[in-house]
Amino acid sequence: MNDEFDDLTKEEEVPGPSVKEEDAAAASVEIEKLTQAMEQKAKEAADAHDKYLRTSADFDNYRKRMQRDLADFRMYANEQMARELLSVVDHLSLAIKHAVFKQLRDVLEKFGITSFSSQGEPFDPAKHEAIMQETTDAVPENTVVQVFQEGYYYHDKVLRHARVSVSKKPTAENQGKSIEEHVNE
After folding, report:
1. For the chain, which domains are there?
2. pLDDT per residue over 23-46, tens digit each?
3. Burial class (CB in 10 A: 0-12, 13-18, 19+), 144
4. How far apart are the C-alpha atoms of 2 and 9, rounded to whole Å?
């Protein structure tokens, strides 16, 4: 009976693709789909990683720029105050110089040393040293028109002559010429 049964089972088999071949084909298609999906996901992951790296670099640049800006702000925050203080320093410096100069003059006067005025006065060779002449008709001839160095008395004696520029009248040929034209001749 076993032989009969074996014959029956053999006859019932239908020729065609086997189950294994169908499963293999389906598995091959499924593997292909999974491979494509995996490649797509790998590409998306690479794009996301690249985007992350760029964003991270942008943030680092922003952080560094903000630190630089903050450092610059801290460094130069008081620039306006410093500018305003400079004029105070200048005035204070002048005041101190003036005060020190005045104190020094007071000490010199205590010991009989005084300066004398020369500007606009007639030239006096006993107390003036002429180092230059200026042609002008704005003041009388032989008048001190500019003082280059003050003169000083020691009691009633000239200690140092004042170094001055003295006026002279224009001559007929120099009439109407400026000082620069005389110098350039």
Report:
1. 114-184 (2.30.22.10)
2. 888 888 999 999 999 999 999 999
3. buried
4. 11
